[in-house]
């Protein structure tokens, strides 16, 4: 029996940070031996909010290089750029025409992002989850590893697929396969360094709120020095009144590869002045191999182009097959 397939992606906007790593990429690396993985850079999604055209292509390459630097192995995974496979845009259109408007208006992320965009809410922001449904359904994956915040988009994807199957397929022969979400345990949520109750995010206006995977040591040191703490002495996990403390201890635990008990014991009597340098060193040491590999990948002429070219070929073969299946079911003529 062949391996099950997983598919996931990240938008190439801003620099990838510890939250992206622990929340997404690290999990992909952990499961990659077990699955046939399709991992992409969602550049079409990125432009649902304004992007600088001068940066878009480079950000896309940067993310591809980081996937590899973080340990994604091309023996198990296919890495590709969403916009290199036109079937994504095309299926999105077909799906848009069977998706009720109110399903999209009910999406939490749309409502949140629309508020942030103020007067200038593009139709792309509303249709974002339909494109995501197309991304997923094209590859007929068994599992889609995503964070808790994407759960609603996964449910919508299933609803759209079920609707298409119901309207155009038969019960014995569904057109599209319904994917299962693979939602990570809540424990992997990395919080902002400036507010322990908010998620670490690329869109936070303050760069001090996050540590990027490519931050040099001085910057990591600076950010940890400035990060929010509290006046309590002695550090402990799981105190709801001390969200920053829990977050920083968790980062230390994960990046130093220790158990929760060991860290709880080690830090029980520490003050911040003692803990912060420890965390700083741990992060610098943990990110160093990723940064070195990244530099190496970016310095090799033509390497990334070749990886992405290969990825496009592999992705396109599967995506076009599914797209044709849908077009046929909808009654389109297929060119010979
Ligand atoms: N919306 C996802 C996010 O912001 C990114 C994404 C786009 C995605 N298409 C996808 C994730 C398909 C999984 C599958 O995290």
What would you note in describing this structure?
The protein has about 325 residues and is mainly α. The protein is about 55% helix and about 10% strand. The strands form two sheets. Strands 1-2-3 form a three-stranded parallel sheet. A two-stranded parallel ribbon has the order 4-5. Strand 1, helix 1 (about 20-30) and strand 2 (about 35-40) form a beta-alpha-beta unit. The longest helix has 28 residues, at about 270-300. Bound molecules: tryptophan. The site of tryptophan has 12 residues, from strand 1, helix 7 and strand 4. Tryptophan binds near residues 8, 144 and 146.
Secondary structure class reads mainly alpha
User: Which hetero compounds are present in the coordinates?
Assistant: tryptophan
Rg from alpha-carbon coordinates? 21 Å
What share of the residues lie within helices? 40-55%
Distance between the termini: 33 Å
Average residue pLDDT: 95
Strand content: 5-15%
H/E topology pattern: EHEHHEHHHHEHEHHHHH
DSSP, total strands = 5
What is the global morphology?
globular
Q: Are there runs of 5+ residues with pLDDT below 50, and where?
A: none
The main pleated sheet reads as: 3 strands, parallel
- Major beta sheet, strand line-up: 1-2-3
How many helices in DSSP terms?
Answer: 13
């Amino acid at each position: 029996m062949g391996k099950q397939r997983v598919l996931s992606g990240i938008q190439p906007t801003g620099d990838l940070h510890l939250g992206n790593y622990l929340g997404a990429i690290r999990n992909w690396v952990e499961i990659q031996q077990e699955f046939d993985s399709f991992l992409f850079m969602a550049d079409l999604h990125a432009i649902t909010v304004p992007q600088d055209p001068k940066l878009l292509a480079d950000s896309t390459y940067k993310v591809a290089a980081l996937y590899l630097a973080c340990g994604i192995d091309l023996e198990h995974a296919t890495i590709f750029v969403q916009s290199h496979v036109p079937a994504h845009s095309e299926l999105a259109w077909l799906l848009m025409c069977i998706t009720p408007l109110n399903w999209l208006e009910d999406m939490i992320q749309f409502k949140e992002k629309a508020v942030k965009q103020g007067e200038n809410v593009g139709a792309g922001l509303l249709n974002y989850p339909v494109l995501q449904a197309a991304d997923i359904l094209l590859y007929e994956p068994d599992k889609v590893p995503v964070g808790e915040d994407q759960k609603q988009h996964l449910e919508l994807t299933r609803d759209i697929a079920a609707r298409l199957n119901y309207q155009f397929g038969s019960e014995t022969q569904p057109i599209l396969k319904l994917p299962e979400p693979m939602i990570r345990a809540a424990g992997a949520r990395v919080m902002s360094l400036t507010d322990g109750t908010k998620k670490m995010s690329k869109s936070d206006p303050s760069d001090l709120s996050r540590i990027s995977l490519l931050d040099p040591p001085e910057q990591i040191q600076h950010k940890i020095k400035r990060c929010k703490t509290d006046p309590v002495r002695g550090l402990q996990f799981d105190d709801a009144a001390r969200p920053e403390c829990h977050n920083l201890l968790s980062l230390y635990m994960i990046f130093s590869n220790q158990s929760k008990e060991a860290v709880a014991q080690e830090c029980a009597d520490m003050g911040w002045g003692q803990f912060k340098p420890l965390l700083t060193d741990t992060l610098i040491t943990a990110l160093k191999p990723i940064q070195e590999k990244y530099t190496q990948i970016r310095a090799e002429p033509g390497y990334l182009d070749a990886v992405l070219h290969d990825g496009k070929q592999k992705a396109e073969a599967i995506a076009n097959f599914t797209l044709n299946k849908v077009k046929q079911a909808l009654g389109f003529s297929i060119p010979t």
